[in-house]
Amino acid sequence: MGIIRFPSLSSKTKSFSKLQGLCNRNKLDVPKGYLAVYVGEIQKTRFVVPLSFLEHPLFKNLLRLSEEEFGFDHPMGGLTIHCQEDIFTDLISRLHVS
After folding, report:
1. C-alpha torsion 43→13→94→63, nearest 10
2. Are 76 and 28 in contact (CB under 8 A)?
3. For residues 61 and 37, is the Cβ–Cβ distance under 8 A?
4. Contact by Cβ (8 Å): 9, 57
5. What per-residue confidence (pLDDT) applies to 68?
6. Does residue 74 surpass a pLDDT of 70?
7. What per-residue confidence (pLDDT) applies to 10?
8. Which end of the chain is more exposed for a tag (fewer CB within 10 A), N or C?
9. What is the Cα–Cα distance from 81 to 46, expressed in whole angstroms?
10. How far apart are CA 20 and CA 32, in angstroms?
11. Apex CA 18: angle with CA 48 and CA 71, to 5°?
12. Which residues partner with 46 through β-bridges?
């Protein structure tokens, strides 16, 4: 499982990188002002996104759709979003541009 961190919305960058070695790190390693989310349909990838995303209409819509379809059961200890990883990364890219 990888971890992906995204810069805050104020940064217009689209670039992000996958970090290796999450298994050796503390899974509670989330910086202040960020939120860990697990994304995927079968295998979940951990993303660390700014809390400000929770106020964005596109992100809110994704959360609403995920809740309606799957509920908010979070066995992995973080918010779980059931969608394809590439769709999620596309959405995150759009949030950085807006």
Report:
1. 50
2. no
3. no
4. no
5. 86
6. no
7. 40
8. C
9. 10
10. 21
11. 40
12. 3, 38
User: Mean of the pLDDT values across residues 35-43?
Assistant: 88
Could you give the maximum distance between any two Cα atoms of the chain, in Å? 35
Separation CA 53–CA 35 (nearest Å): 9
Amino acid at 68: E
Rounded average pLDDT over 29-48: 90
Amino acid at 64: R
Q: How far apart are CA 51 and CA 9, in angstroms?
A: 10
Question: Residue 81 forms beta bridges with which residues?
Answer: 39
In whole angstroms, give the CA distance from residue 76 to residue 70: 15
What tokens appear for 55 in the block? 């106020």
Cα separation, 4 vs 36, in Å, equals 9
Q: Residue type for 19, please?
A: L
| DSSP classification of residue 15 | -
